[in-house]
Amino acid sequence: MENKKIDIPFEVTDKGKVRFDTYGYIEYAEDLGYRRTKIFGVEHLVRIQGNIVRIVSKSDIIQTALEYLDENFDQESELKYGVTKYEIKNAWINKARQISEDATLSFLRYEELNPLRDTQEISYFCYKNTVVKVTKDMICPLSYSDLDSHVMEDQIIQRNFIIKDHLLTSFIPFRQFVHNVAGNIEERMIAFEAMIGYMLHTFQNSALAKAVILLDSVVNEIGLIEGGTGKSLLVRGLSYMRFLCNISGKDFSSSSGFAFQRVTPFTSIVAINDIKENQNFEGFFGRITDGFTISRKYKHDIFIAFAYGPKMIITSNYYVKSPSGNSTERRKHEIELSTHYGKDLTVYDDFGHHFFDDWNEEQWLAFDHYMLYCVQFYLEKGLIKAPSINLDLRKLINEVGVELMEFLDQVLLSKTKLHKKELFVEFRKESIGSRYQLGLRGFTIRLKKYLEYKVIGYVETPSNTKVFIEIITEETKEKQNLLTINDIKTDYKTVDTPNKMTRLVNQLQKFFNTGN
């Protein structure tokens, strides 16, 4: 577009005055790339240059018009037309209000955008010099001119990218940092790299949508909070690859209508850092599984359909509380950071420089190669569950409570048959404070959760009243002829056709009818 000769819209009257035509200005603005469009239902003025789109203001259009005049109306032009650049600018100033009115700019041509988007198998990263297409099998640079889609200027990574395969075999500080926070354990390292790839891949799959939760592996619920494990630095790394909105968790409230007002339609990742201890994960459900509504003070709400909404990452020193059930578990991906970093060792101590701020061009390029590798790895393997460090214990603390855990630990040292009501009364007498002033039913639920987390087998006896909970031991199994799953020998066969299913149902009906 810069090489195309654009006519400057003015004419000289018989009296030598510069006349400025309003519609000529609109055509001039269109030749410079200005259009009207809608982004998630909200109308914007934009400038489209090649495949790159930038949202602009009314004054931007006038400024660009003046810049083009300055660059292209020289002394030869002044002689040709018999007017000076100053006279043309003066004519524009006289009509500045008129040409900036909404009614005037509504005559700009409307253009429907076709944004470049990730698909299930492909992820795109836009650098200053190239677009990088990533699949599980390859990383391929593309020219902007080869795209059939538009790229928003705000989403362009402000670095150049060149493929240098040897960089992946060199020492990459950010990769070593990731391996360190993973505890340098292979199963956990690949889980971290898959998680990074998931966050950078902007495609949204409703069946697999999850919020990533980064946790310290230290059980802060029963000790002092230390922090400094690398959660914030890991999130900051994501921000150099995708448009990320950082929200302070200390002031965050999911019930606030304006909690996400700093999110924009171009945000790829929403990061809520250091979330409060008692924040309930349930408040994020709608943001993860449904469309994303951005409410801003004194402005219209913006609704972003789920397919185009941002992914969410949450960092916390505490286990994030949530309702029990599969719907909760399948909407969060929890991953613990090791204690490699903390008060005794910082990332700066470990590497001798400040990440990102002190990197040269080659280090940035190595970082880019590693992050794109993580995307490739995710596209091939999907999210990988990291082996737990203390996550199961923290879930137990969250659902049962430290005081009840300690009480039951002591009780089970000497008892294997527990009278529910008597045990409840005993605990109420020993509990200190109102936190555990719950009813018998709630106490029993927590008691069962404790036994399940500890993998302690139990039965409720007698069968008609279930007054007792009896711990299954070899002695009780023999006395009551109890069966556990380990006592059952099975011969599994796959039921994979309708006929097999019909035969299975008939056999089950026959079994229950005859008691054999």
Multimeric state: single chain
- Structural class category: alpha/beta
Helix coverage percent of residues? 25-40%
Determine the number of helices (DSSP H or I, runs of at least 4 residues). Answer: 19
How would you write the strand order of the largest sheet? 11-12-15-10-16
- Shape category: elongated
Q: Radius of gyration, rounded?
A: 32 Å
Question: How many strand units?
Answer: 19
Residue fraction in strands: 15-25%
- Stretches with pLDDT under 50, minimum 5 residues: none
Mean pLDDT: 85
First-to-last CA distance: 84 Å
| Main beta-sheet annotation | 5 strands, parallel
Please characterize this protein's 3D structure.
The chain is α/β, with parallel strands linked by helices and 516 residues long. Helices cover 36% and strands 16% of the residues. The chain is built from 19 helices and 19 strands. The protein has a five-stranded parallel sheet with strand order 11-12-15-10-16, covered by helices on one side. Strand 13 (292-294) and strand 14 form a beta hairpin. Helix 14 runs antiparallel to helix 17. The radius of gyration is 32 Å and the shape is elongated.
